[in-house]
Description:
With 449 residues, the chain is an alpha/beta fold. The protein is built from 16 helices and 23 strands. The chain has helices at 14-25, 40-44, 47-65, 76-86, 93-101, 155-158, 175-186, 206-218, 307-321, 350-355, 367-370, 373-377, 406-409, 411-419, 423-427, 438-446; strands at residues 3-10, 30-34, 105-108, 111-115, 118-121, 124-133, 137-139, 152-153, 167-171, 190-195, 222-225, 229-235, 238-243, 248-251, 253-256, 260-262, 289-291, 294-296, 335-337, 342-347, 360-366, 384-390, 395-403. Helix 3 (47-65) packs antiparallel against helix 4 (76-86) and helix 3 (47-65) packs across helix 7 (175-186). The radius of gyration is 23 Å and the shape is globular. Bound molecules: flavin-adenine dinucleotide (FAD) and nicotinamide-adenine-dinucleotide (NAD). Flavin-adenine dinucleotide (FAD) is lined by residues 10-16, 33-36, 40-42, 46-47, 50-51, 110-111, 134-137, 155, 176, 263, 267, 298-300, 305-308, 310. Residues 333-443 form the Pyridine nucleotide-disulphide oxidoreductase dimerisation domain.
Amino acid sequence: xxxxxxxxxxxxxxxxxxxAGRLLAAGKNVAVIERELIGxxxxxxxxxPSKTVLRPAEARTEVHKAAGVSGAEVDWASTREYRxxxxxxxDDSAQAEGYTAQGATVIRGEARLTGPGRIxxxxxxxxxxxxxxxxxxxxxxxxxxxxxxxxxWTNRETYTTHDLPRRAVIIGGSAVGVETATFLAxxxxxxxxxxxxxxLLGREDPxxxxxxxxxxxxxxxxxxxxASAAKAHRNGADSMVILEDxxxxxxxxxxxxTGRAPRTQGLGLExxxxxxxxxxxxxxxxxxxxxxxxxxxxxxTAVMPFTHVAKYQGRIAADAILGRPRPAGYEGxxxxxxxxxxxxxxxxxxxxAQQRGIxxxxxxxxxxxxxxxxxxxxxxxxxxLGLLADAERAVLIGAWAVGPQAGEWIHHAxxxxxxxxxxEILRDQIAQFPTYHEAYQAALEQLxx
Length: 449
Ligand SMILES: Cc1cc2nc3c(=O)[nH]c(=O)nc-3n(C[C@H](O)[C@H](O)[C@H](O)COP(=O)(O)OP(=O)(O)OC[C@H]3O[C@@H](n4cnc5c(N)ncnc54)[C@H](O)[C@@H]3O)c2cc1C
Ligand SMILES: NC(=O)c1ccc[n+]([C@@H]2O[C@H](COP(=O)([O-])OP(=O)(O)OC[C@H]3O[C@@H](n4cnc5c(N)ncnc54)[C@H](O)[C@@H]3O)[C@@H](O)[C@H]2O)c1
């Protein structure tokens, strides 16, 4: 006998949680299905533990740079204790109870679609009017000869580790690589960062990569650009990585930040009418619809693999199911890498604007030369802001920022880009003195549009 629901949410990471919460609040009969932990990758192995362990390092820098305070040092044992509290000691029983209390049926196990509206979990057969796929993504480890001999970590081992390694090789110079290098270097680990691109954070404007390179080098990270791991082997206690140029690096662990793949394998999505893209992602329309009464949200769609996007798509899909559809818009969504200082961006890069045939004008501001806040905040102040405008339409189309709290003040640009606010209106804004926000005024004034 099968059990029937209005909606079955398959995967309870941040995307699934938001969709389920909205549907339950609207009185729907919802089944939530999770094979590991309710909260998903983000809550236990990604965003939450990484931001928790990066914070002491950031606070230490703040104390070192602020005039008139001294004495701050990081402490791994107490950082780890707070991290374990933040990841609930990998226990989601309170979450399961919470969903049950809201009226959901919580089903544990690996789900598979067996046809439109039909799901199998172990020996349970479930039918649902609507199914939401929110199964996320998993770390990709490139094929490297000899990898089975070495101690290889992904984000999972890195952000749940009890002990810190003495030496780490990190492969991949994008968000995971840069954040992990920042965290480990600030806790005294000797870090070598191997990146095959010619600059870090290669999807952002080149200036961002340059600035990050300088800050990481200053933090003691040995950065190897244009390098790729060709082979690996064990030498006693050491994990050895051999680069394509023949050079070798020894470490206690090798950490992979080499991208993620949508979790769609074996899910039976085609049986339910979904189409998959070339990287195995579920293809969706502007309402997060994958097929009739089948929806997909979050990393499994590969639209923008961020928690805030998974949550946004959760709202979009739930609203469509509840009969109040609104199209998703992906312009101007913030992208923050929580390094020290923070790196933030929103909208297009100069290269992307060129590819779209937009006549774009860019400007860059060194905050210390333009505004007061960096000086009241720290000695030897840090901070840059880049803006990109469409010269024809006189609106902001892109922004990047590297500096303290950049992940907070990038939202001004995000709103301006999403709402397509005319530069004239932006120039008439008044930011509190002295804040980092004032940088927008100064940058907009020097923007020649
Ligand atoms: C190290 C790291 C740090 C990150 N930091 C940030 C950050 O600071 N900010 C940010 O916005 N993003 C961050 N991200 C990205 C963020 O983790 C993801 O974008 C986010 O987790 C996606 O949410 P999701 O709901 O799509 O999937 P997930 O969080 O991956 O959750 C999917 C859930 O589905 C379950 N599942 C999968 N298959 C099945 C099945 N067949 N049956 C039942 N259940 C299933 C899984 O067990 C999992 O619980 C980070 C990523 C990494 C790796
Ligand atoms: N703060 C945040 O929002 C945050 C933090 C961490 C991760 N994330 C998200 O998690 C996802 C995964 O991040 P990521 O950094 O692992 O992936 P990514 O796909 O962004 O970058 C992977 C990098 O690894 C490099 N690479 C791949 N294979 C390599 C090899 N063999 N040798 C050397 N370099 C190699 C690639 O060139 C690329 O630069 C991303 O989508 C990211 O947005 C977000």
